[in-house]
Amino acid sequence: MQNLISSLSRRTFLKLGAMTSAAGVAGTASASAAAAKTNPKGSGKISFWHHYTSDGERAGFAKVVDAFKVKSPAITLDITTVTNDDWMTKYIAATAAKSGPDTLMVTAARFKDMRKIGGLKDITAQVKNWPAKDGVSTTIGAFTERGKSYGVPWFTFIDWMYYRKDLFDAAGITKPPATLEEFRQTAIALTNPSKNQYGFAMRGGSGGGGFIPKMIHAWNGPFINPRTLLRQVKFETVRDAVSFWVNLSVKDKAVVPTVTSDGFAQIMANFQTGKAAMVMHHTGSFVQVAGYFKYGTQVETAAMPAGAGASTGFTSPLAHGIFASTKNPDAGFEWISYMGEAPAQVTFLKETGYFPTAASASEDAYVGATPQYKVALKAIGVYDTEYTFPGYTNWVSNTCLPEFQKALTGSQTAEKAARNIYDELGRVCTAASKALLSK
Amino acid sequence: MIALFIFYPLYRGVFLAFTRTKLLEGPDSTLNGFENFKNLFADPTFITALQNTFVFAAFGLTSQMLLGLGAAMLLSKERKYIGLIRVLVVLPWFTPPVVTAYMWRFMLDTNAGIIIQLLKDVGISFGEVGIWGNPHLAIFGALFVDLWASYPFFMLFILAGIQGIPKDMRESTSVDGASAFQHFRYVVLPLIKPVLIVSGLLGVIHLINSPTLMLLLTNGGPGDSTLVLPLYAFRQAFQGYDFGYASAISVLVLAAIAGFAMVYIRFAKFGKED
């Protein structure tokens, strides 16, 4: 019903309301109440920043944009790609100059930083009046601070693993690893350097720092106190987590040797060519992998292995927000709320694999007919949400990654890397906690 | 007006270096004296970046100037299609840094790089981890890419200098019995010295000030093995949101370049007759 209401234009909706009133049909009151809960319709030109770069993402997004043009012809979109590397640079410049885009993407991991820097508009009132808001009630919290909402969820990154079923079958391995120790043993068993085959395509280049908090989380469970933002993990736990991850490469030699320079493109290429039997990513690469493997016989998906404290996998929603200095918030909200509903999200899911945030989208027939998504659906209830606190992304990119790389290349021990990662986490958390308390 | 455009941003940059300006603490700046500079010299990552910057600038300047000089000497002779050849040789310099970085990143990739495969075929290997994964080789990979992209800059400067030398001077030195090397050493080199000094100075400024290539090729890794000062300043500003600290790095780079320029020009006796 909420979808039906949101898909009607305001004029049509009022006409229907008037007709029902005139006819004296029972339920007029509820229809009027629903009309009052609809946001004002927007018009004019609005700009939008995103960071899609792959062909699949662009194609999927183009379909969503085309459908929006049909639904809201009074709004013209001016869409700009800003790469992830440039994102915060441009966001900071736009915030300082008060001349950013009308609407933009907000990842959960960056949300606290973007919020602190300013530039995101409080959209609490619009969300409150948005008929489809209940559909994203479980994810909108990631973009809410002190009771104020700053983003409408679009999709969720759900970590999972791809494994080469053909290579598993050839090695006599019947099921994917469920725990990190099983993962290690499986990776070792699948490694055969003479055949140029390794158990795992580890990401140690661009984006590789993100696996360090996943490992610490898997060993410890939540390592930040969500209330105080203070660190709640012992050094020994961080040391064990970092050492395990580093030693998959350094001691077990179960990782593709180019690990320190392998980013997303390289790990997927290693997996595609059979150089690696397992790779960790998220559902966003599901369609890409289908481009070169057949699910069921050649490749399969599996949940991220569990550690002693929690699963290695995170869910991490991504939302769209409105820029603080926009002159067209109505059109902006119409655009971002359109993407917050099931039809747009399912369109994007089919083209990419990015998993919807709207509850009704998860019940879509396409999701049910794709058995690999069972892993993702199950993971939603098991995984914790990725961390977000001020300074988190900088810690991941500029402490975790270089320290991890130094341990991989033998420039320092895993223990020394863990020590630097642990100490810097302490500094970042203390600063974040101080800022929280000073408010 | 011109002074406003030139000096105000410079003033702001220097001013920020003496403040605590952390965007995560709010947009305001508070004066903190030399605190950022004191912290810099106690920061091991800054020291690593300083060393890497020195290596990158020294090797970069030497290699680019030598190759530029060699190419200019070769292309200074008039022959058929020389105009076209000169344009083709200059093409790398016209290529945007983003294209240059991605192109070479993949051509030198251990698994899929065509150049790495060709080198393997003739028995040259960079090991299992390759160039970009090796902390000792990655900076030289970046230097090679910058050599490819930047030597035409030196070549153009030097070629212009060589073409300014009267043609009959070579005939005169030949009559006097000078070899080609002696002509180069005692005639060409002194005459193009001002060009070498100016291009060298501009080259050093480019090498020290350009984080783009390193950002896209290695992002400072593996570890901090290719982290250079402008990239470190960029990280501090736009990933750590600490504009005070980032400005302090930039001010030191500015001071180092200005100091280098003064010493370099004085040492090279620029503008004085030999």
Automatic annotation (TrEMBL), chain A:
Please name the Gene3D superfamilies in this protein's record.
Answer: Periplasmic binding protein-like II
Query: One matching Pfam family, short form?
Result: SBP_bac_1
PROSITE patterns registered for this protein in UniProt: TAT
Classification via CDD domains: PBP2_TMBP_like
Could you tell me what this protein is called? Unannotated protein
Species, as recorded:
freshwater metagenome
From TrEMBL, chain B:
**Pfam families attached to this UniProt entry:** BPD_transp_1
Q: Name one GO cellular component term.
A: plasma membrane
Biological-process GO terms, alphabetical: transmembrane transport
Where, subcellularly, is it found?
Answer: Cell membrane
Establish whether keyword rRNA-binding is in the entry.
no
Show the stretches that span the lipid bilayer: 54-76, 83-104, 137-165, 186-208, 243-265
The record's annotation in SUPFAM superfamilies points to: MetI-like
Q: Which PROSITE patterns match?
A: ABC_TM1 (PS50928)
Q: How does it sit in the membrane?
A: Multi-pass membrane protein
Q: Which UniProt keywords apply?
A: Cell membrane, Membrane, Transmembrane, Transmembrane helix, Transport
InterPro entries the record matches: MetI-like, MetI-like_sf
The entry's protein name is Unannotated protein
